[in-house]
Design goal:
Largest sheet: 7 strands, mixed
Order of helices and strands: EEEEHEHHHHHHHEEEE
Strand content: 15-25%
Shape: globular
Radius of gyration: 20 Å
Number of helices: 8
CATH architecture of the largest domain: 3-Layer(aba) Sandwich
Helix content: 25-40%
Number of domains: 2
Length: about 280
């Protein structure tokens, strides 16, 4: 099958075979393994589309501009970049809304507030895979499944089903989505100078936390429609615009189902901000 001049970066397990798909580790047939922190392995002006979903927030802030400039470099004049990221603005609005409703004692607000706090902080500060989010998801007594699905879509549904099924059979649950975990392994640069003797106690714990924090799972920075537009424009892009999961200037977008299913209108990551810009 001939490839379109379309590039999906950090594709995970969601990709289309008509595209060229790249991730830190190969996550499926034809997916190219490459450390995106070291640039994009394609020639200048060779592509019409560059797309990445929930990748940018995993990069340190000082690497983000470098990465977006690489996206600019490989695009043809008039080419389109499409970025999907967790929407900090919506998380912040939810925080204020459910904080006020919790104070008023609105039924169900406390549970939504708790989850919003995890969206805001846990993904940034966690020291173990899955963090407190995983503990929350596996606990069906929270009675907050509908809100979790509204915020995180089919991906949280898969994790929810997996964790609760394992709990019922009294097996130790996975701490995170296996596909995502394998994908994030590729972001590890490794600790070059390993200790010559085993560590114990607090030193070992500190080393374990340090290793985890460099593996790419945590969010290194967050963006909203203003800061993402500013970043894209600083890197040379123009005509930045917010899109929906199903709205795009990319030709044949409806046939790829990357941000959502066009038949069912189910958004893959409902917590996303979608933005496109032109070179």
């Amino acid at each position: 099958m001939s490839k379109l001049p379309y590039l999906n970066l950090g594709c995970g397990i969601t990709f289309d075979p008509e595209w060229t798909n790249v991730d830190f580790v190969s996550t499926g047939e034809g997916v190219i393994a490459h450390n995106l922190l070291n640039g994009i392995p394609f020639m200048d002006g060779s592509l019409e589309v560059v797309y990445h979903s929930h990748v940018l927030e995993h990069m340190p802030k000082n690497k983000a501009e470098e990465f977006i400039k690489e996206c600019y470099r490989v695009l043809k004049s008039g080419g389109i970049i499409r970025v999907a990221i967790p929407d900090l603005e919506q998380i912040a609005l939810n925080y204020i809304k459910y904080l006020n409703e919790s104070i008023k004692g609105t039924p169900g607000a406390k549970e939504k507030y708790e989850w919003t706090m995890l969206e805001l902080f846990d993904q940034v500060v966690r020291n173990r895979s899955g963090g407190e989010m995983i503990d929350y998801i596996k606990d069906s007594s929270k009675n907050n499944d509908q809100f979790l699905l509204e915020r995180n879509g089919s991906e949280v549904k898969r994790i929810m089903d997996m964790l609760r099924k394992k709990k019922e059979t009294q097996k130790e649950p996975e701490r995170s989505n296996p596909g995502m975990r394998n994908r994030l392994k590729g972001m590890v640069s490794g600790i070059k100078n390993k200790p010559q003797k085993p560590l114990t106690g607090e030193d070992q714990q500190s080393l374990d936390i340090g290793k985890f924090r460099t593996q790419g799972e945590v969010h290194q920075w967050m963006y909203d429609r203003f800061s993402l537009k500013l970043l894209l424009e600083q890197c040379g892009f123009k005509n930045c615009s917010v899109k929906s999961a199903f709205d795009s200037g990319i030709a044949k977008w409806a046939g790829f189902n990357l941000d959502g299913n066009f038949e069912t209108k189910e958004v893959r990551k409902p917590d996303s901000l979608f933005m496109e810009a032109v070179k």
